[in-house]
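Quick start: read one record
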Amino acid sequence: MPNFPQSTHYTVQDIALQTPDTERFQLRWSRKLSLTSRILAVNLFALALMASGLFFLDSYRTRLVAERQSAAESQVRLLASSLTAMSDEEDKVALAQFARNEELRVRLYGKGGIKTYDSLSATGPTFELIDPDKEPLRKTAARWIDRAFDFIVRASDLDQYSEPKLDTASAWPELSALKAGESQSLVRFAPDLTHVVTAATALPDGATKLLTTGNPRDIRSLVRAERFSIGVFMFAVLGISVLLSLFLARTIVRPLQYLARASVRVRLGRSPDVTIPRMPSRRDEIGMLARALSDMSSALRQRIDATEAFAADVAHEIKNPLASLRSALDGIESADKPEIREQLMAVAHADVRRMDRLISDISDASRIDAQLAKANFEPIDMGDMIEQLLEARESRDADGNVRIAFARPRKGITVIMGEDIRIERVLTNLLDNAVSFSPPDGVVEISATRSEDEVIVRISDQGPGIPPHERETVFRRFHSARPEAEGFGKHSGLGLAIARTIIEGHHGSISVDDREDGLQGACFRISLPVAQPPEPQG
């Protein structure tokens, strides 16, 4: 049996005995995507989760605006409380000073909602609302980005700020229905999408109302700065994710594609020299797969070569009895004498028996590998088996005038794991071979001993022996060098080949050498692993 290569990085029997769970590996919605696409999708999905930080920007802006509103309300209440202790002239000075310091526009409304004071007249503009049409293109692009992000995060849409045509208290919603000591604030968008915060309160008399207006442009600047930082970080992560995805695709997808193409070439048989790379430098699952496929293709090629050689040998061996049978049948038709016809008929019957024996042995030889792979090995005491086999041979006088001497080992010493029918077939073939080569009244010696973790069986005859250069040849299929006294065609030449296949299927070895005692003859040596005792269960 050929020695098929096996990788040292995985257990072939463990892999082969596993029942494939195909349901676990079926793909549904992603079955049309390539592996590279899946790797990119996973990494980009993780990046998309990171992009959810954009929603944090909206909450960040909301907190900033709320803080500015709260601060504006606190300021307007403090300003209102300070005005109650001042005269009218002092009020105007304090309001102008407050407007300049805080960069706010301050307005007072008296009875009937009539405006009585406006810091714009006293101090001039403390802030300026910018016309977006007069700004450079980059500012316009920034506003479009602002609108896009506001749309993505579903930010609340604010009203547009504009000065009323008739500046009275009723023109400002935040001033309506205010009672003494109460305050209220509103936020609107300036034309350039910056924020305008207004805060209003009613003085203790209930009739006088105070309104402050500010344009805290830093809110939009802070949000844009945070958004820029997140954007830069996201683009950096995107670049890293794409590079990592391409790296994974290069280290996973490309080797798999290469292995797939090599496997297809092996399947098509376009070239007998096609090999699957073993990738010895890779210690991951891809390397394991490469070595498994390489071992599988090598074993498959060896099996194919062995099958082709076996088929050629079978055709050659069958041709000989067929040619002899055809000659005998042709001769019967033209033979005139009865004795010649009888001789030719005897030849024909012998050829038919030879073909029947040959076909039976060929059938056994072709099935042994598959049958051994499925066999359940059981403990076999080689001493008991040999003893029972010799008793059966003696009862049917299978050995003629050749005596078989057996040195019976102690019971339980030579126990192996195997299939008893196959091991018995090996012993029968070797004994038949030894008996056929032994001279009349010769002795065939058989022994079974234990040597460390092996059971050694030796079968020695007193025949002519086997020259050193033929000791490997005798195990080849259809090799038959029989004694001269034996009739032609009584053996198929498969007995020793079948014996080696069975022994190697039991993880053992078989060889032939000279007798150990130096006498003439051959000694066949079988080595099989000792059966290991079952592990104790705790």
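The CA atoms of residues 458 and 491 lie 22 Å apart.
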